Amino acid sequence: MAQTIVVSSQQLVEEAERAIETLTVAQALALHGRDDVTFVDIRDPREREREGKIPGAFSCTRGMLEFWIDPASRYYKPVFGEDKTFVFFCAGGLRSALAAATAKHMGLQPVAHMAGGFGAWRDAGGPLEAPEARKAT
Description:
- InterPro entries: Rhodanese-like_dom (IPR001763), Rhodanese-like_dom_sf (IPR036873).
- One of its GO terms (molecular function) is thiosulfate-cyanide sulfurtransferase activity.
- It holds the Pfam family Rhodanese.
- This is Rhodanese.
- The chain is built from 6 helices and 5 strands, in the order αβαβαβαβαβα.
- It is an alpha/beta fold.
- It has one domain (about 10-125): 3-Layer(aba) Sandwich (Oxidized Rhodanese, domain 1), CATH 3.40.250.
- α5 (about 95-105) links the parallel β4 and β5 (about 110-115).
- α1 packs across α5.
């Protein structure tokens, strides 16, 4: 018997966006570089290698997010214990909405996500770190 999906991925993103703050790229650019804000890049490492990074962003893949936020987890990252605003972003703004909603649900606050993600940031002329050169093996 085939699986019946009762909630679409788009519905999940829409629910997440209703629960969190969504920043425009202009709003995110205005926050970049502030000491009280941490940008969280949830893209896959291959995406960062290919496209580059937002300077100063903390990299946390989507798959490890819950474990890195939870202080009781052996994978906890102290950056998530800091008294800061966390701005999540991905490549296009879908995964980051889900990530920010999950972080908020876990108790991390304040959180937001950037509409349009890294692509919108790049297209708006936001500062970038060049992609890392691949090492020859």
